[in-house]
# Entry
Amino acid sequence: MAGTVEQKLSELGITLHEPNPPLANYVGFVRTGNLLFVSGQVCNTPDGKLIAKGKLGSGVTIEQGVAAARGCAINLLAQVRMALGDLDKVTRVVRLGGFINAMPDFLDGPKVLNGASDLMVAAFGDKGRHARTTVGVAALPGDAAVEVEGLFEVA
# Structure
């Protein structure tokens, strides 16, 4: 039976999938004590297709970037569920780190990353409010438009 957080996600039309395996020599998450570090998740769908491919400011719109960041957040939550078995064990979303595949003059990375931040708040309420960093980068794996990593406090 799904917990409270997964019920909220379901109300938003989101069903979590099995996370895609890592693409290189790393693991999807590491738990140490009451902290869960989740590796960067690109903006792919469960079947591996990118939600948005290319650079913000050159072919990828802010709206497409927001959707991509939201997809990254869904992938983060899939990893969290795999790690904990139940999203209700998250006591706090501590931090998100966002990487935006962007042209050098693209200045709206924070708007893009709101796609991930807004989902965390929608899913966890006040426990979903977090610290955040947004960085524009020259390239991401597979030419993904967005990648997001997360740090969660867990019970």
Q: What stands out?
A: The first helix runs from residue 4 to 11.
